[in-house]
Amino acid sequence: MDIVPEIIRENIINLINKKERADGRALDEFRKIFIETGVITKAEGSARVKLGNTQLLVGIKPQIGEPFPDTPNMGIIITNSELLPMASPTFEPGPPDERSIELSRVVDRCIRESNMLNLEKLCIVEGSSVWLLFIDLHIIDYDGNLFDAAVLATVAALRDTKLPTAKIEEDEIILDYENPQPLPLEDTALMCTFAKIGDQMILDPSLDEEEILTARLSIGMRPDGTICAMQKGGEGSLTKDDILKAIDITKGRIPQLMEELDKTIPQAR
Amino acid sequence: MIIIITPDEFKRVSQATREDGRAPDEIRPLKIEAGILERADGSSYLELGGNKILVAVYGPREAQIKRLQRPDRAVIRCRYNMAPFSVEERKRPGPDRRSVEISKITAEALRPALILERFPRSVIDVFIEVLEAEGGTRCAGITAASVALADAGMPMKDMVVACAAGKVNGRIVLDLSEEEDKRGEADMPVAILPRNKEITLLQSDGNLTQEEFEEALDLAIKGCLKINKIQKEALKKKYGE
Amino acid sequence: MILVKDKDIVVPGEVLAKNDYYPGRGTFKEDNKICSSHVGLVSIRNKQISVIPLVSKYIPKRGDVVIGEITDIRFSMWGLDINSPYSGFLPASEVFGKEKRGLENIFNIGDVLFLKVVDVDEVKKVKLGLKGRGLGKFKGGVLVYITPSKVPRLIGKRGSMINMIKEKTRCDIVVGQNGVVWVKGDPEMEKVAREVILMIDREAHTSGLTDRVRDTLTELIKKVKG
């Protein structure tokens, strides 16, 4: 972890107390968002997202496998993230560390709990064959707030994904790559992350802001305003008011994220 | 049992010409960009045919591990890694024997170009990410890594540029695609310092007569020199030339 | 025989000249050829060819002034990050006499200091000092990071560039040779100064920079004053 020079810390806090930020944004404003899909030909679905200078790729690969015994008629999603050492001088090579695992699990919860993906439709033969979707997050440039960028990229990649149709004829599974179908996506959820600095809750923290925050709050929300996932992080605490304020801002910002997403890759009908 | 129906284009196997219509001495379409990442000291992005490679360089920086330090020069470390979604069948994340070997020979291919004596006791990290693989990723990685090192401001005697030649359907050809590598008789990756054509990487996998080897080596060097022009353009373009 | 022009952008390994020229900074000689060792700008002075790197890391030299951040406190010294492959240390004796207790009461982790490079030994240990005019801890202001090789461009001929920025923004500005710049003044003017310093960093290799910086300054200041 980098140590933020005292001068930079003071400067950020002084600005935030005046409701300003070092990069000129309002406290409830995202950095510039860029979304591109279909970037990896060999993946069945893929997306690249830039949120300011934070940048990541998501690739989706399907496999056929066995369902979990307690959900014999449901497909499976497996989310994995790599905080690549190329992305930051503080990231080390090696197996996923706790930050990387937290990121994967929060993204996974936001996707799963929103029920955006109808897992029952990913069942091929109940009890024996279902689709396994591997969602791999590849972080290539880390400049703060991976959560929101990761959820946005994952949803974009899911929208981009096409699976071969699976038919059963005489106990054999026939995969038809000539007529691939989009995923059974029935809703959307996106995420807004806040940093508590001083008394303020600021949206989409930059790297410097993230390094001096006292607490962090991520909110996954569907367009109808339902909250589908939350995660508090950081060593400090939040008040109930902080949380309600963040929810309020999230409600206002989800439509903006949806617009950016729909502009690049509309939901297939 | 699972039966797979694939579109016709995958079934097509041509014998006489190269299946993508290239001449024997022709490389796949190539694009290189320098300086595309924010955090890294130097970076590059390369597309060669269906290959997509991203390279980041950090350093020279303080060697955190004392035993890595060399009192008289910097140490270069490479990490070649394939993204799980870079290949047809999902690859398990993390290093395997192949990527460890490629990391080693990549560091050794780059080493002769670098003036490491300028930075004793420090370390230079080169991270090569294969985002999508379509044959020839180690060569593409070396070519891109050298652009990223120059972009990071590393003093160098020359660029390093790599290209493979090989034998497919009894013919010596340049820059083998994934299909050609699979079906071909031999694949020979080569890296050179283009100014004096010294060879810094040579591997060969498959059978070649001495005559065929010499023809392949000459062809690989010819390919390297073409690629070197595009490396130079990428670096100059970053500064608006 | 010369193969390039003054201010051309060259890359490592590029042959710049043959015979009757001398290799300068950023170049090396091989047989009768002078080649570039960097991505940089060609500079031809008489018969000497140099390449000024467009990117570089800061290598500490005795006598340089640098801006460093305290990252470690030990028994009798502070450890500092000086934006370089080599970290620096400030011996307690630079601040105290023989008394060495309570280093953290003087400088703490995260403090930013203006220091002098007192010595760089053969194992690259960088000894820093505070004895000199203007050296010490910064209070307030903002930090701007630029490429160390562009520091001379930021300062300008006899300080012309930096003095212009100081005058127009009425900010205090301190430039470390390691590419770290400290700016303090009116908060709005700090932003203006920061913006033009970053502009110089980006465009250091282009010509007519001083005029463009002057225009940008005037324009930005007009905006601030409304």
Listing every helix as H and every strand as E from the N terminus to the C terminus, the arrangement of chain A reads HEEEEHEEHEEEEHEEH
CATH architecture of the largest domain in chain C: 2-Layer Sandwich
CATH class of chain A: Alpha Beta
Task: Give the fraction of residues assigned to helices of chain A.
Answer: 25-40%
CATH class identity of the largest domain in chain C: Alpha Beta
Proportion of residues in β-strands of chain A: 25-35%
Give the distance, in angstroms, between the N- and C-terminal Cα atoms of chain C.
Answer: 56 Å
Strand content of chain C: 25-35%
What Rg of chain A is obtained from the alpha carbons, in whole angstroms?
20 Å
Contiguous helical run count of chain A: 5
Strand order of the largest sheet of chain C: 8-9-10-12-11
Strand segment tally of chain A: 12
Can you describe this structure?
The complex is a heterotrimer of chains A (269), B (241) and C (226). With 269 residues, chain A is α+β, with helices and mostly antiparallel strands. Chain A has a single domain (4-264), classed as Ribosomal Protein S5, domain 2. Chain A contains 5 helices and 12 strands. Chain A has helices at residues 6-17, 98-113, 146-160, 207-212, 240-264, and strands at residues 33-37, 45-51, 54-65, 76-83, 123-125, 129-141, 162-169, 172-182, 190-197, 200-203, 215-221, 227-233. The relative contact order of chain A is 0.18. By secondary structure, chain B is of the alpha+beta class. Chain B is 28% helix and 31% strand. In chain B, the strands form 2 sheets. In chain B, strands 2-3-4-6-5 form a 5-stranded mixed sheet. Chain C has 226 residues and is an alpha+beta fold. Chain C contains 5 helices and 16 strands. The model of chain C has no long low-confidence stretch (mean pLDDT 93). In chain C, helix 3 (160-169) packs parallel to helix 5 (209-225) and helix 4 (187-203) packs antiparallel against helix 5 (209-225). Chain C folds into 3 domains: 9-53, OB fold (Dihydrolipoamide Acetyltransferase, E2P), CATH 2.40.50; 65-137, Beta Barrel (OB fold (Dihydrolipoamide Acetyltransferase, E2P)), CATH 2.40.50.140; 142-225, K Homology domain, type 1 (Ribosomal Protein S8, Chain: A, domain 1), CATH 3.30.1370. Chains in contact: A-B, A-C, B-C. Chains A and B meet through strand 3, strand 6 and strand 8 of A and strand 1, strand 4 and strand 6 of B. Strand 8 (172-182) of chain A pairs parallel with strand 1 (2-5) of chain B, so a sheet runs across the interface.
